[in-house]
Design goal:
two-stranded antiparallel sheet, disordered N terminus, 10 helices, alpha/beta
Length: 268
Amino acid sequence: MACCMAVTSCTDKKNTVKESSNNSEYYVAAYIWPSCHHDERFGDMLWPEGTGEWEVIKKGNPRFEGHYQPRLPLWGYEMDNDPKVVEKWIDLAVEHGVNVFVYDWYWYDEGPFLESALNDGFLKAKNNSKMQFYIMWANHDVKRNYWNVHKYKDDTSVLWNAVVDENNFKIIVDRVINQYFKQPNYFKIDGKPVFSIFSIDKLMESFGGDAKRTREALDYFREEVKKAGFPDLHIQWNQGGGSLMSKESAEKFSNKVEEMGFNSVAMY
């Protein structure tokens, strides 16, 4: 499990005060990069040994005296789609104040990637009621050597493009609503399921680079969520990279948040 700790904070201009006054507890979230298992669809293309990204970790080479490589996890090379393993994560996380898991979630070539960690690991863990969760659609391209430089060396050609067509977007909407939002421990703010999106650029590219069409797609998502019985959808823009912004860039960023109707912003 690779995770980045974060404290989730709402930046909805209309609802910030209301949400802050109604909620006296903190939500501390850990990102889950669910790469440590064999993916039935694409695993052989990236990690053919059948252990997911552990294959790469095991091949770490020491580069100087005293360099601890390859690293051995304290709990060993456990599979993140094993509910027994995830039960240990949950107990340890809750004991130390983490109460939300944010699962990276992928959709390439008209289907999911690495979903088993969430579906078979977390959702089948007997103690998962202790832990809330939500998903971040990690809609970024994947270059061949991005996740396995040992296999692909210097090959930086694109293995998977994150752009989806309108039909696949609708499939994604239906899938996340029925498969995840309806789970009793799915993380919600004011009753609204939280859905995080990694790349607004790739999302816009999916709709011809047109801001109006992209906003219409997000509005469609909201309406489908309401039809499913929720008051609305809380859409979070997860600006990847965490780089510092100039004043001009920050203003453009803020305008894009407003234009797309995002409810909050986070950094991955």
